[in-house]
């Protein structure tokens, strides 16, 4: 019995905990958003944040990323339905994932030099170090920082 | 002899010239109607003018020098790189990447976005038609 409970705990923590987020499973999101950047999973921002993002696509981080009205509302629907409501999004209703208090805490020990190096370029380039970020894994064991190595 | 030269010429045009598909032809046609409306002396789109537009350098909203070639490179058969995100961009030349200039919705979307980013305004019908004529011949 004890073993079963333990196994169940491990399984639950594997599925829900351990810095995993559900993968992107929307073809339109995949096509439109990842043509320019990493496909940030919907759970990385709150509903309020996504509403701001999708309301300002013509000035999207300094770039015109505008879409047709139909595509904009379809994507907003997907993002809002799958928006985050967890430690990642707590205290952050901005359009910047990197302004989440939890995000800041988790990245506080990374030297700025490792972020600005050309292999990474910016803190927003998740997949440069979270080598399985596209699978929704942000776990420690899936971190490999260029010119540094495995995160310890 | 003359006939052979003509035959070779026709064959090479058929082999190398890129053509817009039917829906893109309609789109480019609508641009030329608009260009004619804006300027009655309009006499057709021009790849040379398109190239000049493509390679002209401007100051972006971010205060940096930018041209279309900043991301797409000067050789459109090559892979480009998004200067903001570092993500690679598949080649723009239809000869290297047949998916390019095949979907009106995509073409219209990117012309709107990229003119705004590089020129800080939308492109005119003449400019859009010239740029498309430049790209289709790459």
Written overview of the protein:
The complex is a heterodimer of chains A (about 150) and B (about 140). With about 150 residues, chain A is an all-alpha fold. Chain A folds into 2 domains: about 20-95, no CATH class; about 105-150, no CATH class. Helices cover about 35% and strands about 5% of the residues of chain A. Chain A contains 6 helices and 2 strands. Chain A has a two-stranded antiparallel sheet. In chain A, α3 runs antiparallel to α4. Chain A is globular. The termini of chain A are far apart. The model of chain A is unreliable at about 10-15 (pLDDT under 50). Chain B has about 140 residues and is mainly alpha-helical. Chain B has a single domain (about 20-135), classed as Cytochrome Bc1 Complex, Chain D, domain 2, CATH 1.10.760. In chain B, about 55% of the residues lie in helices and about 5% in strands. Chain B contains 6 helices and 4 strands; from the N terminus they run αααββαββαα. Chain B has helices at about 1-15, 20-40, 45-55, 70, 105-120, 125-135, and strands at about 60, 65, 80, 90. In chain B, the strands form 2 sheets. Chain B has a two-stranded antiparallel sheet with strand order 1-2. Chain B has a two-stranded antiparallel sheet with strand order 3-4. In chain B, α3 crosses α6 (about 125-135). The interface of A and B includes residues 38, 61, 64, 66 and 68 of A.
Question: What labels describe this entry?
Answer:
heterodimer; A: 152 residues; mainly alpha; 2 domains; 6 helices; 36% helix; globular; B: 138 residues; Cytochrome Bc1 Complex, Chain D, domain 2; two-stranded antiparallel ribbon
What is CATH's topology name of chain B?
Cytochrome Bc1 Complex, Chain D, domain 2
Biggest sheet statistics of chain B: 2 strands, antiparallel
- Name the CATH homologous superfamily of chain B: Cytochrome c-like domain
Q: So what's the overall shape of chain A?
A: globular
Counted beta strands of chain A: 2
Summed up, the domain count of chain B is 1
Class from helix and strand fractions of chain A: mainly alpha
Helix content of chain B: 40-55%
How much of the polypeptide of chain A forms β-strand, as a percent range?
under 5%
- Shape descriptor of chain B reads globular
What's the total helix number of chain A? Answer: 6
- What is the average per-residue confidence, as pLDDT of chain A, rounded to a whole number? 91
